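Comment thread on ticket #2218

A.B. wrote:
> Attaching the input chain for the structure job we discussed in standup.
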Amino acid sequence: MIHQAKRVLLFAHISLTSILIGFFTTCVHAHSPHDVVESVAVSPGYETDQTLFIYVFDEFRRSTDGGHSWQNLENGLDNSSSLVSDIEISSGDTADYKIGDGIYRSSDRGDHWRPINTGLENLDIRQLVVSPDFDNDRTLIAVPQGTGLFISTSAGDSWRQIAHDLFFATSATIIKDDNTTRLLVGTGSGDIYLSEEGFDSWTKQNALDEAGKITDISFQVKADGKKVVFLGTALNGLYKTYDLGKSVTHITDLPAPEGDRKTTYVTSVIALENTQGTAD
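C.D. wrote:
> Ran it. Output below, let me know if you need it in another format.
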């Protein structure tokens, strides 16, 4: 677990679902590194390779010993002083992705990087989503600071824009269901949109009027025999939906980062499904 001044990343276990939640706090903890962590990525093979990536105080770092020591990564990052807003690690060929001023990809665990921005009309990318079936479909979604989304089905070699002026997305997830690929999107005003296969047709599923910005959306997982998606928000904590946003349930039993203070700002959510078919 990494504690930082002004921000704390906490691991929380809630009922049958394991969720990674980031809370904004005002605590100061004297642990290394000593600066605010803007983004964290954990290797899919962490149990064996002990690999973590973080962006902290304008430096991109990697640890291969579970966070006990860190190495700065710079090769190929010509915008290394820019904000890194997301880091993702895919499975399979172990491609790693970093975004900030455009998107960079590494095929050697971060030792070297190259830009993959062909077709990206907006290089101010805020979030990157890797498909849960990435090994087969090579699909990535880039959420820009602005309207619409960008999609790649070639692991980032080329991109095309979708939902051009439909919404101002702040989060997205890829839904793989019955051999189809759809997108579930959250906006800065709390709206939830669902695409059809091909991403040319969209339906507004719901609006979370008191939640503010939808900050993150988990992959769809199974819990108690039903498929569920979790949504983090800026003003009202965490929600879950069993019907891709048509109806939502507010989760009220989240742990608070400081004493009994109410948790409202959720920065990231990850739901993991275990081998028994329930989320864990």
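A.B. wrote:
> Thanks. Noting for the ticket: The two ends are 19 Å apart (CA to CA).
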